[in-house]
């Protein structure tokens, strides 16, 4: 596997394989229950003549077992329908406000923001498990742009910045590699099987209370209490046997994904001491206090496969361990055997100036990508994992690193006032409105400002502050700033979010036309803030062929110039997508584009399999390269917006172009 798109596709195939194995386990459960209850029926009916099974006996048992498992699975997945936030709250997590000034929280937020900006996805919500003293973390969610990252209190207090970056890089690997959705499916299926066992225990207790002497009126039927006891025991035993094999399957898959995430964390930060140091401290804390990565929450067993380290000890460590042995993980990170280290609580003076909400992300750039980590850290986020080159290998080339670093520095070096506004819900909403306002036309600007004030989103003073901040934002900083503002915007009440979307739509329509920039901002806002945003998107298309018209519509956005030039550039991109057999007549003049149709096309393209999505981006890049516009802010903004709409990280441009050559 040599990039994140292949890893996502691999995770999707593993998910299918996993569900098939669970289907076999459920089938085995159904067969065992049928056979056992058939024997129990024969025993209960002995002495009453030839044994006859009631009509539909086996069908009823089969339906009953499947119904319990199915309803339990659907119930748990429904409980988690809101994605990562629901999982984090289930684990006892507390949402960290983006404008927090707490020393530990500010450092964590800065690291997560840096990683999100570098990988080109929306900044995840951040949670802290305040009651957990062990060193652990997890990522959860159905989609990349709706993920959350949760860490324990022990992680915040015992890890230095490099180690925290390694942990966050590990969790971002799970986000980018497509592991999160499979993890939530695992929780649902295992809960469904557990429901069968729990019902068996309840049935056994009912049978014990009724007793074995209650028979039917003619005294020829089997003992009702005895039947309930037997059925209860069978369901209880078979249910937990199902859980046994389910956890066996779960553990085998989880261990391999943890090795991959460790490797990706090294690739992200270019610093083996990051994730390696965190794992060493987990080992040291385990030896010193027995805490290690342990999670005390009652939900730890259900969520064990999602954590950075083992949440609970396994009585059969080889088969049931959801994580590989720490020694083996460290050996793969460092390439040699290393010792565990002490995990002392850090002093506050070790956190530098990150306690301030005004702390500049650009000032942390060297901490994230310089020094021992090197400036290729950002390139690593884009280029993915090269598993055959070892954990510490520096993938990419200096020119490639310089190209990406310069691009990312531009996003990180956004004005302090704009970044500060993006971290608080109300001011973030106001900043979004200010970015949409056209301040070049005085009359129109006045009209738009009145619309914002009438909506009650802000007073005049706050609005002017937001307008000043928006005026200092460059074209290349708009979408990174929107990504940065997402955690704050998601904290708005549902009715305020809908009001914000309505106000943005009205501001865009104020001049009677929709620009590319306005369309991009509105499309991303609506995709990420609508009530269904956190729900899973089903993969419906294995390749681009069924979406030929939608691809042509999106590609038509890229070229610039007169109609003839645009059509020529369109065909340059079409040449890289030979299977679609696009013709010059498929090109649509952007002046005649319906942006609602573009939005609908992107929604369809979001249902592509992971490996098919980069092909669309390849076509866009082919056009931009032919027109020498690869380095333009417009190209990067358009590319970033399409990637956001189809839920994929922004790819490494030089690496993808090299593959195309």
TrEMBL record:
Annotated GO MF terms: metal ion binding; metalloendopeptidase activity
Key words, A-Z: Cell membrane, Hydrolase, Membrane, Metal-binding, Metalloprotease, Protease, Transmembrane, Transmembrane helix, Zinc
Domain Peptidase M48, chain residue ranges per copy: 104-333
A Pfam entry, by short name: Peptidase_M48
Transmembrane domains' residue ranges: 21-44, 56-75, 184-204, 224-249
Region ranges (Disordered): 349-368
Signal peptide: none
Keyword Ligase belongs to the record: no
Family matches, as InterPro entries: HtpX_protease (IPR050083), Peptidase_M48 (IPR001915)
Taxonomic superkingdom: Bacteria
Obligatory cofactor(s): Zn(2+)
GO biological process: proteolysis
Biased composition (Low complexity): 355-368
Protein name: M48 family metallopeptidase
Protein's organism: Undibacterium luofuense
Lineage: Bacteria, Pseudomonadati, Pseudomonadota, Betaproteobacteria, Burkholderiales
